[in-house]
Amino acid sequence: xxxxxxxQQLHGYRAFIPAALPxxxxxxxxxxxxxxxxxxxxxxxxxxxxxxxxPNPDLFVAMYVRHEAVLxxxxxxxxxxxxxxxxxxxxxxxxxxxxxxxxxxxxxxxxNHGLERLKTLPLSLRLLREIHGRLMEGVxxxxxxxxxxxxxxxxxxxxxxxxxxxxxxPPPPHEMKExxxxxxxxxxxxxxxxxxxxxxxxxxQFETIHPFLDGNGRVGRLLITLLLCEQRIxxxxxxxxxxxxxxxxxxxxxxxxxxxTAGDWEGWLRFFLKGVAEVSVAATNTARSILHLREDxxxxxxxxxxxxxxxxxxxxxxxxSVRAAEQHLRCSFxxxxxxxxxxxxxxxxxxxxxxxxxxxxxxxxxxxLFEQHGMETGAQGTPQVSGSEVGDG
Length: 393
What we know:
Residues 123-274 form the Fido domain. The active site is at 210. It comes from Hyalangium minutum. GO terms for molecular function: ATP binding. Keywords: ATP-binding, Nucleotide-binding. By secondary structure, the chain is mainly alpha-helical. The chain has 2 domains: 4-286, Orthogonal Bundle (Fic-like fold), CATH 1.10.3290; 301-370, Orthogonal Bundle (Arc Repressor Mutant, subunit A), CATH 1.10.10.10. The protein has 15 helices and 7 strands. The strands form 3 sheets. It has a 3-stranded antiparallel sheet. Strands 1-2 form a two-stranded antiparallel ribbon. It is globular and about 75 Å long. The protein starts with a strand and ends in a 6-residue tail after the last strand.
């Protein structure tokens, strides 16, 4: 009863009806949980601080948003990589574009839309619907009521299961509306809970309510970052847990299940806070590595003014063509080609097409920083799916 209860439905299945947050039996902030809270707070603070000393932190954030979009979408079964997304941004109709890259680009757009709207609109059910609409626009699942809460029953379980055999059945639509109303109140009034505890509780509750026919997992992960930004815990959207949840997927589902079956909010929060600390440390290390990379590269190009100008642009657009360099540098095509070749010789750019014409170059050391921690391992099979048929959990 602490987190809610399963209720038998008229059609013979049991659906879970979540209790309102915060739990009526308060979260026990003691022992390991208190220590993890302190560790996560410190790691998050260091991340927020190191980002502020980057030459252009917005470029760092833009890459992290793309990176999170890739990983969060891979959890739901897409195959696109960070390289696919960057190439899609250059030419959405290119011959080498992964077919599901548009889903990842939509995730980036949904995140950016949410951050922009927070300037004038509080984090609310209305904003979550807007974000969902951007996420699902024109891609797989776009026929499943983008931007609208569901009006039918969905479920979570193995491919081919039904309501009677599902692993988990969220609340029916009429109960879902009440649960969403309670969640919105909790987003605005956490009753003095630490912000990270509020984030952890809100994410788990959103996933339990499962208010959309598709896209719940991705919106639920966005909710964490948006809540931290709204509360100004983070000046920029830098905390993304998808890499942690992807690496610990089975435990993630088990912890959510334990909340529903045993009211184990403390076990879930321990898992969540470990993820916050781990991801914050990794992102902080990446930010510091970017600083070192930039200084080393500028030293290699010290006598090359055009090369340094192009280098700064590569932090924003790490895939580059000669034509794009020509436009950015406002020079001749031959000068742009020569400048790119100098960056290739310095070990900064690598040609990716193997063609003589229409060549494309990638900023190899920079992209390696985002790929080296196993973050670009490709999609693994999603063990659970949801929806009135199928969708992301």
